[in-house]
Design goal:
The protein is mainly alpha-helical. Helix content is about 55%, strand content about 10%.
């Protein structure tokens, strides 16, 4: 599953002004259940979607393509996008060195992915803070 904040359910994904009454009522119900205004709830949903997109689109590489062993992945935990590349140079290392290089490449990509997820979360909090200031809530 992808990284997400559980404080917002995925109930109202594309929030637009011309929603039907049933969808609007559902959003109002969800916002009220969380002690938020509809605008705050919509802001939270939009911020969560922006963060999920950033995590899905993130690409980090571990290992070194020049040595023949590399791993590319996204920011999800576990990854949705994972490409492990072993070239002839990598195979020429022999079993033990190749295994070690693969483990190191996976760990490196994993560490970089965590940094990217943390950055996406910080960006989301900044977005919420700035948006709330514009709304006059802070």
């Amino acid at each position: 599953s992808s990284s997400s904040l559980n404080m917002f359910s995925g109930g109202a994904l594309d929030v637009v002004e011309e929603e039907d009454d049933e969808q609007r009522a559902q959003i109002e119900k969800m916002a009220k259940a969380m002690g938020m205004s509809v605008e705050e709830y919509q802001l939270g949903m939009n911020a969560r979607l922006r963060m999920e997109d950033a995590i899905n689109e993130l690409r980090v590489v571990g290992g070194d393509p020049a040595t023949g062993v590399s791993v590319e992945r996204d920011g999800n935990m576990p990854p949705r996008h994972l490409v492990v590349t072993v070239t002839d140079e990598g195979k020429a290392m022999g079993k033990e060195k190749l295994e070690k290089a693969l483990v190191e490449a996976l760990k490196s990509a994993n560490d970089k992915s965590k940094v990217g997820r943390d950055e996406a979360q910080k960006d989301m909090m900044t977005y919420i803070s700035e948006s709330m200031k514009k709304m006059g809530a802070m």
